[in-house]
Amino acid sequence: MPIDIRALRYFVETARLQSFTGAARSLFVTQSTISKMVRQLEDEIGKPLLVRDGKTAFLTDVGKVVYERGLEALGVVHRLTLEVADLAALGRGQLTVGLSPMANLFFSPAVSTFRKRYPNLELNLAEHGGHLIEKMVAAGELEVGATVLPGEISASLSTRQFAKYPIWAVGPPEASWAGSSTVQLRALKDEPLILLTDEFSLTHRIRQAFVDARPHPKVVAQSGHWEFLASMAQAGLGTTFLPEPFLSRLAPRDKLSLARLTEPEIDWALAHIWLAGRYLSHAARAWLSTCNEVLGVHGGLPCGAPAQLTGEVVPSA
User: Fold this and answer.
1) Does domain 5-69 have CATH number 1.10.10.10?
2) What single-letter DSSP state applies at residue 149?
3) Which of 28, 80, 168, 181 is 20 to 30 Å from the Cα of 208, by its Cα?
4) Which residues pair with 262 in a beta bridge?
5) How confident is the model at residue 145 (pLDDT cuts 50, 70, 90)?
6) Are 123 and 271 in contact (CB under 8 A)?
7) Which CATH number is 76-163+270-294 given?
């Protein structure tokens, strides 16, 4: 049964965003084009793949299977394109790097250095939650990405840590733990909590820590933007959790309570990930080499430590 790759790509994007409108915006086409291509794919499959409920599109059981296999197929096509382009013209082409919206804080120096060294390489930064980035890299849809460790890293992925920081509790001045330099997770069992959305690895770490410590978390709000979390904490809605580097960006500091989270201590460790044992393009190797040099590893390998790309030769500038 022949399947149109473009139709598959449109369907996967619609399913990922759960929105025909969102997919059209993401792919820079009209909504009618998205609808037409999804219907074409449904005709080719012979089963409905999506069910509309208002403005939201949900996967059918068949749709879930096609979505998972579609990610794999698009990954194969993406890798084929990269390999052919890489062989045709080393040092040219494009690279898309998956970054968590919170991790992008660290990458400005690396991006600047990379652009100066490789002006013919087009660098695109795709912002997604860590779990989605891991899934997209494992499927081959992204060649390289950055995520939070330990996460649920697939055995098929190679990792290289480049940053590690403690987590801090951030709350209103009247928080029960205000005035302390550290706070135990158990002490927050009755506190209203504000968390990042569940697509963030940090949220999974926090929730699991509560499960291990046995107090049930009292989550009152979630957001995908750390600045909004801090604003809600400042407004008295509850306590949130942020990695240490973000504290210097909070303003005004005198309207917030800050304490390092202990018992358990939770580190925010960032790492690059790529698919182990697969072809890694010149562009991806150049990116990893540049980041290894510019970013180094906070709390791990020293800056400038040798690149650890098993079976790969990292190009010099």
Assistant:
1) yes
2) E
3) 181
4) 184
5) very high
6) no
7) 3.40.190.10
Residue 172's pLDDT is 92
Higher pLDDT, 204 or 230: 230
Cα three-residue angle 308-312-313, rounded to 5 degrees? 90
Give dist(CA 270, CA 246) in Å, integer.
14
- If you write DSSP's letter for every residue of 158-213 in order, what string do you get? EEEEEEEEEEEEEE-TT-TTTT-SEEEGGGGTTSEEEEE-TTSHHHHHHHHHHHHH
Beta carbons of 131 and 201 less than 8 angstroms apart: yes
Q: How far is CA 288 from CA 54, 159, 189, 218, in A?
A: 43, 11, 41, 40
Q: Do domains 5-69 and 164-268 have the same CATH topology?
A: no
Q: What is the pLDDT of residues 43-52, one digit of tens each?
A: 999 999 999 8
Return the structure tokens found at 309: 């790309």
Amino acid at 120: N
Domain spans of the chain, in order of start: 5-69, 76-163+270-294, 164-268
Bridge partner residues of 218 (DSSP): 192
pLDDT the model gives residue 17:
92
**pTM for this model (two decimals):** 0.58
Residue 145 to residue 97: CA distance in whole angstroms: 5
Average pLDDT over residues 227-249: 90
- Please determine, looking at this structure, whether the domain spanning 164-268 carries the CATH number 3.40.190.10: yes
